[in-house]
Amino acid sequence: MGVSRSAYYAWLNRPVKRIAPELLNLYRRAKAIFKNSRNSLGYRELKKRLCKEGFQVSNYGVQQLMKKLSLTVTQRVAYKVRTKRKHSDSVADNLLNQNFNPVAANQVWAGDVTYLRTGEGWMYLAIVMDLYSRRIVGWHIDKRMTTDLVSKAMIKAYNLRQPPIGLVFHSDRGSQYTSKRYRHLLASYGIRASMGYVGACWDNAVVERFFGSLKHDWLLKVPQPTREYMRTDVAAYMRYYNLERLHTANGDLSPAEYELSSLRKVS
């Protein structure tokens, strides 16, 4: 093994370094939390999760912990493709102007569509997010990107939340959102449409960040051999994102926890 006799006996006679049960538990939880995030949590986010579970750790301490346990963040480069609206379709005014922080739930929703690649071909995901808590309240995935795709995401969101009349839904100017069929769907629900400006990606920045997290932190970490596997994996991320992933905008609470804490304050 390339070790001298003296070094071997020195190692053999060296006392075993014992690890305290509390430290061992910290190691186990750090590994489990990091693995559950698909190796996507940086030291700041990992620290928040550990502190939430009662561990007393600092930023520097977590950095050293990640180094000791070889917890290395891995990221993959995603892809972005856009669609263009038909010139005959009408465009709604921009009602948000980059104000992504409503004061209550079910006041402002936002949505978009993204491309997801599998071994069998492309899948397309449409989401509806409540900007108050950043919670995904509706989503639909299919192998075709049509008005039906975004409509089903909105129908699921509406049936789940039953928002009041006057809610604002913000999107880009893609052909699915500007179509007459989709505009009629929003009108039937009493939802006001809002659309960002052409070429201004920051006009829907919160949703863009969600798609970035979905791809960089989750989907691109493992092979996606089939469309059915992708569908199941997206569903798993939605649960993780809504129930576990902490958000700085939410005071380091998950979307579900943030909404629950808001209800408690009201009551």
From TrEMBL:
- At the top level of its lineage, which domain of life is listed? Bacteria
Q: Integrase catalytic domain: from which residue to which, for each copy? A: 98-263
Question: Which processes are annotated in GO (biological process)?
Answer: DNA integration
Question: Where in this chain does the entry annotate a coiled-coil region?
Answer: none
Note the Gene3D superfamilies from the entry: Ribonuclease H-like superfamily/Ribonuclease H
Could you give a GO molecular-function term held by this entry?
Answer: nucleic acid binding
Annotated protein name in UniProt: Transposase
Recorded source organism is: Pseudoalteromonas amylolytica
> What lineage, starting at the top, does this entry show?
Bacteria, Pseudomonadati, Pseudomonadota, Gammaproteobacteria, Alteromonadales
